[in-house]
Amino acid sequence: MRHTRAPTPAHLVWVEHRPSSSGTGKLAYFAAVRAAASTEIDQPITANDIEVEVVYSTTRKAAERLDADNVNKPTLDALKGVAYTDDAQVRSATATVFDRTINYVVYGRVEHMGRLFYSPHPDVVLIMIYSDTRLAELGGEQEVQRKRLEAWQRDFDQTLARIKDSPA
Fold first, then answer.
1. CATH says 11-137 is which class?
2. How far, in Å, are 15, 95, 151 from residue 48 at the CA level?
3. 98-144: per-residue pLDDT in tens?
4. pLDDT tens digits, one per residue of 24-67
5. Domain boundaries of the chain, sorted by first residue
6. Cα angle vertex 8, ends 85, 123, to 5°?
7. pTM for the whole thing?
8. How far is Cα 145 from Cα 89, in angstroms, rounded to an integer?
9. pLDDT of 110-120, one tens digit each?
10. Percent of residues in the chain assigned helix, strand, coil, to nearest 5
């Protein structure tokens, strides 16, 4: 059962850090999530229509990574005060872990596949924050998608320019 919501996340937060739920690893993960979220989110969402999807892609051995059920808690706690005022506003949260050392057939948003599966970093976390209220504040679904496409094109053009200018 799911709430009705727009399929476009209001915010996408990319974190290239290993999730951790204890000790200094937890503090470092909190700092990485908060820093990444702060670059994407101007002010916390105040509405109660928030849903969060966390995708953790890794090349680490199973014994060196968090299970899917343990990825949500530190991620949701780290977002408190940046993405939303309190995690009680989150009405749904899911987590998925992908082991990049195994070949899978994957279905999902195409624009996220490359970075999740071909990053040189051993750990990549994509946090998708859905809120129809925030989406409307940002100009609606089409405007958010347009801005993301422009940013992607700008990044792609910069990457091509670097490749073209690098010595062969």
1. alpha beta
2. 24, 20, 28
3. 998 888 777 766 666 778 888 889 999 999 999 999 999 999 999 99
4. 999 999 999 999 999 999 999 999 999 999 999 999 998 998 89
5. 11-137, 139-168
6. 75
7. 0.90
8. 24
9. 666 778 888 88
10. 45, 20, 35
